[in-house]
Amino acid sequence: MIRNVFLDFDGVVVESVDIKTRAFAKLFEVEGPAVMKKVIDYHVNNTGVSRYDKFRYIYSEILKRSLPEDEFRRLCDSFARLVLDAVVSVPYVKGAKEFLSSCASKYRLFIVSATPQKEIEEIVKRRGIAKFFKGVYGAPNSKADSVKNILAEDGTDPADSVYIGDALSDYTAAKSNGVKFIARINNNEEIFAGIDCPKVKDLDGVDLKIGSLR
To answer: Cβ-count burial of 198 within 10 angstroms (0-12 exposed, 13-18 middle, 19+ buried)?
Structure first.
């Protein structure tokens, strides 16, 4: 029986994936359209990876130059300013708010996100949904490590947990910890095309899907 439900945030609880894409485009538009396209393509193909790792990759593999610490901090601060208010106000994924409201007493709910820890805590608080979660986990810890730590602290059998995500990093975090996985499909069909797992288009009725897991 499922006891723990781990939820990615962007694209699973709220429809915020496009907000992050626009932020990356804005930060690197000064580099020109060709570079900006490479940055956007990399971001879109690696949803669920922390912005910290993305900035380092962009500089080393796309821009081919070093990333000084002061520039790294500027990028992080600018990105946070671009996305925070927008993510607080963006609509919920269909069925997500209802799932949280009705199932917080049924399951132990956790947010596992690549968003920085303080930022994801602030977003959850400002959206008024902190009360639904037993814990909120963000970067710099990886999603896999966050799940591992929650299971260790909780003492729950991994088989009694499920992770709902929309990125390959979510699937990897679940499978590396022996946790069941449900994929939210929304313009990411190619990522999960070859992966055998339950798939949902939103969170409307996802409780029934969780209840069917064995």
So the answer is: middle
Contacts of 209 (CB under 8 A, 6+ apart): 182, 198, 200
C-alpha angle 30-54-36 in degrees, rounded to nearest 5: 30
pLDDT digits (tens, 9 = 90+) for 174-186: 999 999 999 999 9
6-37 exposure pattern, b = at least 16 Cβ within 10 A, e = fewer: bbbbbbbbbbbbebbeebbeebbeeeeeeebe
Amino acid at 93: V
pTM: 0.88
Query: What are the tens digits of pLDDT across the range 56-98?
Result: 999 999 999 999 999 999 999 999 999 999 999 999 999 999 9
Question: Closest by alpha carbon to 105, among 135, 131, 137?
Answer: 131
Instruction: Say what angle helices 17-28 and 69-89 make with each other, to 10 degrees.
Output: 140
User: 195 to each of 11, 125, 147, 175, 214, how far by Cα in Å?
Assistant: 19, 34, 20, 11, 17
